[in-house]
Amino acid sequence: MKYVKIALLVIILLAVGVGVFTTMATYSTSARVGQLYKFGEKGMLFKTYEGELNISTKGALGEKWSFSVNGNDKELIKQLNDAMGKEVKLDYNEKYVKMSWAGDTKYFITKMEKIQ
Question: Would you state the pLDDT for residue 1?
Fold first, then answer.
């Protein structure tokens, strides 16, 4: 009985560790350039900040790329709101797993630069 309790505790700790790792760890880091044409707050129960980037040349309709922003990063949220309709470079981290309470995508913006 003692070994069953220890084995169960180890399994629970491993499951929690894997869960924390997959939700918090970064899979990749990169950047994308395009025109920011959609950004705002979404959700009824869990409010998240979501946006879309038009990845194309000279305003032509191109590939749509969706991203999320950490709701605690108020300065970045303000910068993105001010950059609507402008050409921007977005640095982001890709997470292993998408969690609905954190954002609609696995791509979380860490930095924004306006392209002149």
Answer: 81
